[in-house]
Amino acid sequence: MRRIVIGVSGASGSIYAYRALQALQGAGVETHLVMSGQAGRTIELETGMSARDFEALAQVVHRDDDLAASISSGSFLSDGMLVIPCSIRSASAIAHSLNSNLLVRAADVCLKERRRLVLVVRETPLHLGHLRTLTQLAEMGAVILPPMPAMYAQPKSIEDIVDHTIGKALDQFGIEHSLFKRWESPR
Length: 187
What we know:
This protein is of the alpha/beta class. The chain is built from seven helices and six strands. The model has no long low-confidence stretch (mean pLDDT 97).
């Protein structure tokens, strides 16, 4: 069975995490969820849902302060980790191996074990420090995947725009889906 760790930071865009969890559940992927301390508050402010709604979609939920959790070890096998949304604070902590919480530690483990780490970075505009941090992460092996809608799919709703980003993230793990219309050559 496929297994992916999902990290949810407190950045804006928590609906991306919710939709990713739904899509992974539908694809039969085992998910291990860890949310930062601020994620629950952002979820409530943006969606009217609670952290428990997100937790209900994951097979395993880990506390962010539990650095002894299974996902904190390289011996825990997974296909990698998706941090969605990923705040610049979390990205910076990951880039510098500041493993003070489980979300950052699990991402650090993916980097050290050469597993796929996909960061859906939610910040704009980006200043030079942000760009240097993201460049450092890319050089370390992370995939930087900001939520940028593709207009070629002609989205009709916010859900279409969100699904495009989720589909692009799932593509990074080789997970089949039909979340968006793929580009085809014009006739």
